[in-house]
Amino acid sequence: MNTEDEKVLQPKIASREVTTHILKAFGLRMSKKLGQNFLIDARIVQGIVDAAEIKPGDRVLEIGPGIGTLTQGLAEAGAAVTAVELDKKLPTVLKETLKAYDNVTIVPGDILKVNIPEIMGEGSFKVAANLPYYITTPILMTLLERHLPITHMVTMVQKEVAERMTAKPGSRIYGALSVAVQYYTEPEIVLDVPPRSFIPAPEVMSVVVSCRVRQQPAVAVQDEKLFFRVVKAAFGQRRKTLANALRGAGFPKEQVRDALEAAGIDPVRRGETLTLTEFGQLADAFAAQKNA
After folding, report:
1. How confident is the model at residue 33, as a pLDDT?
2. Which end of the chain has fewer CB atoms < 10 Å from its terminal CB, N or C?
3. For 109, how many CA atoms within 13 A lie in the half-sphere containing its CB?
4. Pick from 230, 252, 254: which is nearest to 242 by CA?
5. Backbone angles phi, psi at 206, to 5 degrees
6. Any alpha helices (H) in the chain, and if so which ranges?
7. Residue 220, by phi and psi: left (phi above 0), alpha (psi -120 to 50) or beta?
8. Residue 75 CB contacts under 8 Å (≥ 6 apart), including other chains
9. pLDDT by residue (tens digit) across 13-66?
């Protein structure tokens, strides 16, 4: 039997019956520590593949393939998938569940520690993932801050996190994550994922977020590290005015006064009211003081 014949006979992992069979066959138990919930909805798998606009030959980094549910969908769409799995028990399982696909490479390891340029090689790639909720933000920020050649990120996250990623200035949930994600990408919620789409069913709603990575950040700044230091300070004490929040984060009083004046920003405003452009202007005002 050739590989193509095996693919035809390969059952869809994204179903309650097949997933339950795999879990029992390998004696697997869901790890609360690793935030494991297994996707059993083929419609959601296809929705992620469609949102990522996967075409034959696309190189895709998958984070946390689990038992291969999304991996299978990506592979069947023709992607060359490199899947990084933290759970030491699962690479053996994946070798079996994905044995019909020669376009999948399993890399055991922690996505926060692996050398992504080394495992992905040269050229641009996409990211697809069902992210563990307990570590969503660190993973997103690690991928973005490294300035990797990612063109598109499609991730399943907790709905609350997605709403923060896409929040606008003036919103109660607009914060440092909103600014960071929107600085690097154009985020959009594309699909709701109800709890019944998983086993075990989580207690929260999930959504799929599409983040198209910008060729250039949303605003041009002189010093990116300083930009994010200002953003973090502005949201560090949300109830305080911007001037007080910046001083509380260690910016000298006179520098805060002069930078706000130079940027044309009222010091009694709060951080959650500033646009990305205004944060950029403020960071550049601080940078000008350093360079003076």
Report:
1. 60
2. C
3. 14
4. 230
5. -120, 160
6. 3-9, 16-25, 42-51, 69-76, 90-97, 116-120, 136-145, 159-166, 176-184, 224-236, 242-248, 253-263, 276-291
7. beta
8. 81, 98, 101, 103, 104
9. 999 999 999 999 999 876 666 557 899 999 999 999 999 999 999 999 999 999
